[in-house]
Each structure stands twice: as C-alpha cells, then as structure tokens.
Amino acid sequence: MIMLIYRLRWASPWPLPATEATARELLSLPFHPAMTEHDVITVVDTLRAALH
Questions:
Q1: What is the pLDDT, as a whole number, of residue 47?
Q2: Cβ(41)–Cβ(20) under 8 Å?
Q3: In whole angstroms, what is the distance from residue 14 CA to residue 33 CA?
Q4: Nearest to 20 by CA among 39, 3, 37
C-alpha cells in the first residue's frame, strides 16, 4: 500500500497497481543534505537493529 501521507496528499482517482506493488518492496531512508552526522548514525543504528 502506498504510504498514507502520499495517499492523503496526492490521491489518485485511478488504481496504481505497479506503484502499489513497488511500494511494498522499497525502503525509503531519511537521508538529505541537512542531516547531521548524528542523524545519519541514528538512522544507520536503527536500521541495523531492525535487521538483526
């Protein structure tokens, strides 16, 4: 299922089966230029904990 925030903000009037299928297989990580080194470490540590 498409992430709720996208569905609420940019609702599509028609079905998007390929998008829905892809959304179940992707992982979006919060990385952007404004992140501090501490932010990056927090994301990495959280991901590492979830995978172990």
A1: 93
A2: no
A3: 34
A4: 3
Residues 43, 29: contact at Cβ < 8 Å?
yes
Alpha-helix runs per DSSP H in 10-51? 17-23, 37-51
Q: State which H helix or E strand residue 4 sits in.
A: helix 4-9
**Which helix (H) or strand (E) is 9 found in, with range?**
helix 4-9
Structure tokens at 42: 């927090």
| pLDDT digits 0-9 by tens, 9-50 | 777 777 878 888 888 888 888 889 999 999 999 999 999 999
Give the separation between CA 22 and CA 34, rounded to whole angstroms. 27
